[in-house]
TrEMBL record:
<keyword id="KW-0732">Signal</keyword>
<feature type="signal peptide">
    <location>
        <begin position="1"/>
        <end position="21"/>
    </location>
</feature>
<protein>
    <submittedName>
        <fullName>Ig-like domain-containing protein</fullName>
    </submittedName>
</protein>
<dbReference type="InterPro" id="IPR008964">
    <property type="entry name" value="Invasin/intimin_cell_adhesion"/>
</dbReference>
<dbReference type="InterPro" id="IPR013783">
    <property type="entry name" value="Ig-like_fold"/>
</dbReference>
Amino acid sequence: MRKIFFSFLGICCILLIAACAKNDTPQTEITGPENDKETSLQLSILKGNNQIALPGALLYDTLMVKLTDKENKPVSGKTIGFKASNANVTLLTTDAISDNQGIVRSQIALGNVTAGEYKDIVTVFLKSNEKIKAEFSFKVETETEVDVWLNKNPRIAETISWPESNSSDLNYNAWTATQKTALNHFYQQAKATWEKEVFALSPPVNQNTGASTTIKLDRRDVWPIYLSNIAVSLHSEMNNLLNWSILDYDQGELKMLLDGRTFFIPDAAASNLYQLNGASTARRIIPESALFLRSFLQKEKIIQSDKISTIGSLLDWCHQHFTHFGGSYNYDNILDHWQYSGGVPMSRLINGTTRISDNRFNHYTAGCHGTVDFIKLVLRSSNIPVESFRSYDSHRQAYFSTEGLYMSHGDDPYNLHTWVTPVVSLRETLIDQPTYDRWFNGSSKESVARGTVEFAVKHLSNILVNLRASEPAGTPPAQSKVLKEMSSFFTLEELLEMDLWTRLDARISSLGGRDRIPEALIGRYK
């Protein structure tokens, strides 16, 4: 058993993400009797209790306990023991010292067990006083709630598919008991962390050691990321947490959410490595745990009552936070902006980074390619499929298939023309299929980002107001700075038909005249 444990420990998806949540399982507290010398100390189980496995599976998990005093303050520097009471259990650590947060961890492998309940299978105790202890239990069940639901929804089960190699995909029905147990573990984590804050772990290490933007990730890293995404999708669907259902999606939309090849592609040269690059996968953004991504959506109140409002809310978040990175997309510049080798980890885009070369903090996005990748990966954690594709002139665009709407350019959220006063949601920059077909006919490069200038004309963007206010009163439209700004997209006649200058002059008058435009309106464009 020990040999099996160490052979598979690296593949263990459960160890990599489950520890990232605050209070991810209810605490169990057992203390020693009051007449003991260390009775003021107590051990509480933070994680790993009552886990579920399928018969024949190898269950891997992190056991986490916390040592505190009678005032619930963490106690560091104490030796904690882990002891198994079952021959089928292997522990990676039997003794550990509590850290400065009072936390101690070990890893467990449980295998070769039949269905049943295994109570008090691991005891954790204070070495200096073994009466202060906590005990872990496990269950082995013939089927999980994920199994039951997928059996009733075979189209979903068939779409959940992991690329074992370039020529072999394994759908859920063909997964081993160990693989299904791992997915169920993440499902339980999704339940435990719903509406709780989940922190990102360190992003997976790029195994491509050359100075290249090609990203290669270890199977032991990508498998748990994939499982977390499937688990979050299933948790939302099975518990009716969203006002939309994946059961209404066509097969292409389901694949965008559930097919492993839309996440990672097996590396042709090394069986243990996976790449990101491909026609339907993220080019620049490193996927991370969907538990973290969903927590981000909840914390920022991005998930709304319908899909289009949720999409608009995420675009608005990007509008308020993102800044286009500087320079070209090369190895050194990536390190400068995101301190990562070859790409952009999701968490560093969400949390922001400090650019090394000038010590400036921002939420730097990797251009239109990176922004569309980000939108695709984040919305996937709320069961909204997004197709990422190149425009005819190599820009990146997004298609929200369930809504029939497009982004005219991945850089739209932080385009200067999207700043209007008062604020208007950027869902209005999205365009429908007939508009997309008319604008993007393969011959008009100027159509890229046209959604933002249409938005600017309709809502009188701050920059248009500022341009008009900066020229002498009565400047004819034909000599106006506004025409020069918009001439790539509109003719003078088209802008006159939209009554643009009349509306701009009225807006300026309502703000007190050319010399009294509020600083908040124009300061961004000085």
